[in-house]
Design brief:
The complex is a heterodimer of chains A (295) and B (323). Chain A is mainly alpha-helical and 295 residues long. Helix content of chain A is 72%, strand content 2%. A two-stranded antiparallel ribbon of chain A has the order 1-2. The longest helix of chain A has 32 residues. The termini of chain A are far apart. With 323 residues, chain B is mainly α. Chain B has a domain of 210 residues. Chain B is 70% helix and 1% strand. Chain B is built from 13 helices and 2 strands; from the N terminus they run H-H-H-H-H-E-E-H-H-H-H-H-H-H-H. In chain B, strands 1-2 form a two-stranded antiparallel ribbon. In chain B, strand 1 and strand 2 form a beta hairpin. The chains are: A mainly alpha (295), B mainly alpha (323).
Chain lengths: 295, 323
């Protein structure tokens, strides 16, 4: 064998599947970051913490209100989205006109607060969240066993990513959004409520993170540290894809998830670092990222 | 008036020399008194972090680059120094130099990759690079993974001076701190430093004036990395260990917090900020994870209301520019 140990088809496809799952989380998270960056010109360092909040939202919905997974899929992103809108309205809006690095510092501080509070109350260990009964079970595809829930996560997040891309690139609201990104003053002069658009954009980007969190809850468990772990990888994904591009962040997210999965099969020692190594190579060859326009 | 120390921190003039001398003498006096008032190991730890924060501040305060992965330099140097002192039996000075050299080389590599990007992009790249170093330190055999390197000998400096004596060690650490601090003061107030500030104020104009901006930034980055490494290596000798905490994302965030609280772009701000944050950690240690939440709240408060930081506010009130 090439790398000294036998690789079975089951193992290969299994890791590919895990890669696709991780890739769909990367895609949704980096998509949210890209949407927020486009409109507010800040990197949302709280993105990981809000992803975690989404997963906890599902957990609370079940244990406090008796709402099942399907309700959580709707309620948790909306709740976290409104929380995000509140953050934007009360804090981020005060930093407009300053160096964008302050937005980064503020969201980093918020991430510490959220994470610290949850770690304080729930410790570092994970809490299980059951797979919904409708999606339990495994399908035999002949060459591998495919758990239904995992298939659902991949299909559902691909649909959400496509819908977001469509909404931004092909609809009238998306056109307002893109116009406001280019020239907010002008769009305001046309009678569009730009501050509201900005708040809604931040809320939407954050809701995407929370949705990814709900999807992740049955797979990774609900853990206060889950957001911090994934954030650096998502940043690398964004850097590789290029900051400005919606489609770029989706494609890069899925692709890098798969690459990471394949690395686990062929060279497991590098599986944690492969995304960062790719980032370094991309930066050397194309500093603006694969789909980016300017650095 | 918007308060934005990243965009405009005071530019020092030559007449500030006397102010600097006065405040510097006060710092020296504090360094002499401190070990008699506070627990010496606490002071030494604070000094290491103060040097770390000063090195970080060289980038954010004087070049306008926000590195969100500076823990990689602190942590790697700490590991290398601990390994050199413990396994190879290096003299403490030589072990520290080995750590500094590794941090400098890492700074060169990371700098080449990151320096072409600006602002937010630069911050994200440094996060990702430092995460890579974190995983390297987690898996490399010499770092002993989760356990870290324990029981690092403090050894005899130049084979003569016994550093396991607290008083001797304190003088050693204070001397290293002063060396780093003065190196940064000298850098910032040199023609080289003036170019750095010009880049911070208006990079395009600096380019059009004929400065090779990328080279200036890279030199500043390597210098900052090496000084952060000096802090990390010294810390390994003081605390006699090197662990994953030093190389983790949390430490990268802490140094940002120290500098923000003390005052970005001020000479003494990072020192004050480091003392405040280290003290906060020590006194709040019993409250567990509340420390993280409190640090976050301080972060938010500083960004929203207090962007000049402690020293920045004092300097502003006194109209002094040399703090």
């Amino acid at each position: 064998m090439l790398f000294g140990h036998a690789i079975t088809a089951q193992q290969l496809f299994g890791q590919l599947l895990i890669g696709l799952i991780n890739g769909s989380f990367y895609a949704m998270l980096s998509l949210g970051l890209a949407v927020i960056f486009g409109m507010l010109n800040i990197v949302n360092f709280a993105h990981g913490a809000l992803y975690m909040l989404g997963a906890f939202g599902a957990y609370f919905a079940l244990h406090l209100f008796g709402l099942n997974y399907w309700w959580a899929l709707i309620v948790s992103p909306i709740a976290v989205g409104f929380f995000g809108a509140l953050i934007e309205r009360t804090m981020l809006t005060r930093l407009r006109g300053l160096n964008p690095l302050y937005g980064l510092l503020l969201t980093f501080g918020l991430a510490l607060v959220i994470q610290g509070l949850f770690q304080n109350f729930y410790g570092a260990s994970g809490m299980p969240y059951a797979i919904p009964p409708q999606l339990a079970g495994v399908r035999n595809l002949g060459f591998m066993y495919l758990p239904n829930y995992r298939a659902w996560v991949i299909v559902f997040s691909a649909v959400i990513c496509f819908a977001t891309w469509f909404a931004i690139e092909k609809t009238r609201l998306g056109a307002y959004l893109r116009a406001a990104t280019e020239n907010p003053t002008m769009v305001r002069a046309f009678g569009v409520n730009v501050p509201l658009l900005i708040t809604a954009t931040y809320g939407f980007g954050v809701a995407l993170a929370a949705l990814a969190g709900v999807l992740a809850a049955p797979i990774t468990q609900v853990r206060p540290g889950m957001g911090a772990d994934i954030l650096a990888v998502v940043f690398a994904v964004v850097v590789i894809g290029g900051m400005g591009s919606i489609l770029g962040s989706i494609v890069t997210g899925f692709t890098l998830g798969v690459v990471e999965g394949l690395t686990k099969v062929f060279y497991p020692e590098a599986s944690n670092t492969v995304v960062f190594v790719i980032m370094a190579i991309v930066l050397l060859i194309k500093p603006a990222g694969l789909f980016g326009r300017t650095a | 008036m918007s308060v934005d120390p990243i965009a405009a921190s005071p530019v020092a003039h030559s007449r500030d020399g006397r102010q600097f001398a006065g405040v510097f003498l006060a710092l020296l006096a504090l360094l002499i008194v401190a070990p008699f008032v506070a627990y010496p190991y606490f002071v030494m730890q604070a000094l290491c972090f103060a040097l770390f924060a000063c090195a970080f501040n060289l980038l954010i305060g004087y070049v306008g680059l926000l590195s969100f992965g500076h823990a990689m330099f602190l942590g790697l140097a700490s590991y290398v120094c601990a390994h050199a002192a413990k396994v190879w039996g290096f003299d403490p000075a030589l072990a520290i130099l080995a750590g500094v050299a590794c941090a400098g080389v890492l700074g060169l590599v990371a700098g080449v990759l990151a320096i072409r990007s600006q602002g937010i992009y630069f911050a994200m790249i440094t996060v990702a690079l430092s995460q890579m170093i974190y995983f390297f330190c987690l898996e490399a055999p010499f770092t002993h993974g989760e356990d870290g390197i324990q029981g690092v000998p403090q050894g005899r400096l130049f084979g003569l001076i016994d550093l396991s004596q607290t008083a001797t060690l304190y003088v050693f650490v204070a001397a290293i701190f002063l060396f780093g601090f003065l190196a940064i003061y000298r850098t910032v107030n040199s023609p080289f430093g003036e170019v750095l500030k010009a880049i911070r104020e208006n990079e395009l104009r600096a380019v059009s004036l004929g400065y090779r901006v990328a080279r200036y930034k890279l030199v500043a980055f390597v210098l900052s990395a090496a000084l952060a490494g000096l802090a990390g290596a010294t810390k390994a000798i003081v605390l006699q260990n090197a662990s994953l905490t030093d190389v983790g994302f949390g430490t990268s965030g802490e140094v940002v917090l120290m500098t923000l609280v003390g005052g970005m772009g001020t000479l003494y701000g990072p020192v004050v900020g480091a003392v405040i944050v280290v003290a906060m950690q020590n006194y709040l240690a019993e409250y567990g994870e509340w420390v993280t939440a409190i640090q976050g709240a301080v972060f938010v408060a500083c960004v929203l209301m207090f962007r000049r930081g402690v020293v920045g506010e004092i300097a502003n009130a006194l109209k002094w520019t040399s703090l």
